[in-house]
Structures are given as C-alpha cells and as structure tokens.
Amino acid sequence: MLLRACYADRVRLPEGWAEGVRIELTEGGDIAALIPGGSPEGAERLAGPVVPGLPDLHSHAFQRAMAGLAERVGEGGDSFWSWRRTMYGFVARLTPDDVHAIAAQLQIEMLKAGYTAVAEFHYLHHDPDGRPYADPAALSRAVLAAARETGIALTHLPVLYMTGGLDGRPLADGQRRFAGTPAGLLALLEALAPETGPDLRLGLALHSLRAVPAGALREALAGLRARDPEAPVHIHAAEQPKEVEECLNHLGARPVEFLLEQAGVDRRWCLIHATHMTEAEATALAASGAVAGLCPTTEANLGDGLFRWEPFRRAGGRFGIGSDSHVSVDPREELRWLHYGQRLAAGRRSFGLPGRSPHLGARLWLDAADGGAQALGRAAGRLAPGRRADFLVLDPDHPSLCGPSLCGREGDALLDALVFANHGNPVRDVIVGGRRVVAAGRHPAEEAVAARYRRTVARLTA
Domain named Formimidoylglutamate deiminase N-terminal: which ranges (predicted)? Predict the structure, then answer.
C-alpha cells in the first residue's frame, strides 16, 4: 500500500536527527516534504525511529542457493579459483523458473534485513548448452519478475562476458551460459527497456578485464552512453592478485590503473572489490568520483584480502556495500566486518578520517546509503525532498536498541548500536518507493516464496 503521509517521532535527516517529523509523499513514491515539528493529523504513525534504507550494490542472485556448498578442502587446497569451479557446476543446472524462485527468496531476505534496493550483476544469459533462449532476455526477466513480486527496487545490470582470460582464450564449458557481445547486451537492454520505471533501472556490467577485451569494453560503453548517458556501469576489478599479475603482463598496467586511464571512469561507475590497489590507485579512484563496491563477507569467504580503506576514505572516496555471493544477507554485518577487518589489519579501532558524525556506525550507515544509491543510479540514499521514499522503521523495543530513552542511545549512538550490536534484527518496517513491503518484520509473500525456494533447492541439490 502506498503511503501518502506518515509521522515519526525521530528521523535521521542528512543534517542530523529531527523530532516529530511529518513525511509527505508524492503519488509516485518520492518524498515531497519533511516537516520537523509537523502535525501528525491524517498521517500514518510510524512505530519507531526512521533511517535511510541501504542499497545492496552487488548481487549474484542465483548464488544464494549454493551458499555453504563450497566449503570443502580438496586436493591442492581451497581458493577463489576452486570455489569458482563449484559455482560453474551449480549454475549449469539453473532454469529461468529456478532463477525466479531463488531471486525472490533472496530479495525478501534482503528487504527484511534492511536493504531497500539491489543491483543485480547478472551474467547468466543462455540455456545450459550455451544457446540463447527463444526470448534472449528470459533469465533477466526472471529477476525482474522476482522484484515485482517482492517489491524491492532493482537496478538490473546485464553482464558482458567474452573471454576466459586476458590472453584472449575462449570461454570454458562452465562459462558458456555467460557468453555475450556488446551488440547482444545492448539489444538485451532495449528488450528490457519497456519494463523500467521508478523502481527498475537498467545499466551495464563488464564482468572484468579478464573477460572483456579493451576494444569490446569501449564499444559497449559507447553504445550504452548513446542509449542512456547516465546509466550505471559496474565491473569486478583487482579482486585477486592473479588478476593484477595478468593485467600487468598483458595490459602493462594494474586493473584499477588501466580503467582509470583508459575507460573514462567517473561517478557513474562502481568498481566491485578493488581489493588489490596501490595507495596511489586508491587515491586516484577516490578522485574519479566512482563508488567502490565492497562486499566484506564474500571477500572474507573467498580469502580475497582487505580493501585500502584509509587512503581511499582520506581522499574522499565513496563506497557502498553488497552481499555478492550471499553467504550473508545482512547490511549490518557487511558494515561491521568492513570496519573490523580494517581494525584487525591496523591494530587500532579508529582512523581519524573525515566524516559527518563522530559516531562510526552512523558514518558507515549513512555513507554506504549515499554511495550505494549513487552506484544504483537511484535518487535515494538519504531522507530529503525529491528522493525516493526508501527508509526503515527500527523497533525501539528491540534488545539492541531499547531502554530508557532508548538506553541513552540518542542521536547517532542509535546507529552505532544498529551496526555494531549483533543481537538479532531490529528492523521493523521497510518502505520502498513509499510502499510498505515489510510490516512488523514480515513480508506478505514470505511463506509462499520460501516454499517455492525449498522445492527448487531440493531439486538442484538432489
């Protein structure tokens, strides 16, 4: 149901907390006005403090169904590359109906956890033999259908994937479902264009420099910009040392260095992981205005390494978070482990970096909301007039937040508790584009979607 006006006792606005806020919404689901000290008359009363929802800027939806299936040590040990072989075996079985079932389950989990939007980095295009479906957009449409069912806002990013490495070798059998060309991906975007709207955005993903030759990268970008000059562009970059080594050998530059020099990286871009950068690359990436897409639980699960947080943030770098392989679907855990990883590596708790609040939880939450919205090409990320009405209502009685005057957790101390106190989920209600999609911790379709998901996973893992 679309809200027309609502009223909250406390709301985290960009400039700080405000009390007694009337939130007026447009018929299209944007914020028309925020009135501190406004009247509650005729407005729906919200049952707790209100904060911006977080975008999930990097998702491979189908991997939700294989979470936990790649934790075995084989001969030669385990690594990102052995995990990838397991993933290829799993993906070979998926049908469009399977993708719909998995994506819907994942998206409900995202919403209940506090994600209000997701960027789907979608590289599964063809049938198991690598042939196009009768409708070449069949697998993309499965993800779009799931988003319509669940109510999450979606930025759909079909992926260009052409080669098996920087030496130009052909795709392996496990990669044949991913194959594409710049012309084919642009045609896919045209086919999906009629389905776009305020809560469905299209962009393009380049899988990586390993998978997209430089000439094809430029061709795809030129076609995308002719179609939509503001469309977001995402790419995996510098995730593994082996990738950096191959780029140096074949391109004469490190991955982030090459992209900054050759690809016109700017605020429309999101570099996923960007783990293995030099300090100079981190500073230059920050200056470009691009978003660093950080996925701490997946990066830890795969043993990727730690992002160069301190020089990037000191230079004003923008970031967001993603759940990637979905070993965890919890924005608070991503933010917590983003900072914990840096603390462990540095041997200290704080970094003296500039920020809008002295509270680390507030800094992380608010900056990830802003950066994630930028990466999704979505006018969201903060509660302000003209922005999408994407926000969360927290449960003031939750053990992590409750007590006299919310346990003294006034102001941004509340966001510190939200991020760093790991005692269950304090998200009560979730509003996306002015519509309540989770109420009192429950999504209206969760039972039916979970039953369908269980049947799908039982068949896939039989």
Answer: 5-46
| Domain span at 71 | 54-376
Convert the pLDDT of each residue in 71-127 to its tens digit: 776 655 566 656 677 788 788 889 999 999 999 999 999 999 999 999 999 999 999
The CATH number given to whatever domain includes residue 21 is 2.30.40.10
Does residue 71 lie in a domain region?
A: yes
175 and 266 share a domain?
yes
Q: Please tell me whether residues 160 and 28 are part of one structural domain.
A: no
Q: At what angle do helices 138-150 and 96-113 cross, to 10 degrees?
A: 30
Rounded-to-integer distance, Cα 343 and Cα 350, Å: 7
d(CA 193, CA 135): 15
- 147 and 105, same structural domain? yes
56, 98, 199, 324: the catalytic one is: 324
Q: Does residue 324 have an active-site annotation?
A: yes
Which of 156, 236, 273, 359 is the catalytic position?
A: 273
Residue 27 shares a structural domain with residue 101: no
Q: Round to whole Å and give the CA distance between 34 and 200.
A: 25
Per-residue tokens: 41: 């008359």
Note whether 26 and 115 are same-domain residues: no
Nearest CA to 377 out of 57, 76, 122 is that of: 57
**pLDDT tens-digit map of 392-449:** 999 999 998 875 554 456 789 999 999 999 999 999 999 999 999 999 999 999 999 9
Prediction pTM value: 0.96
Q: Is 122 one of the annotated active-site residues of the chain?
A: no
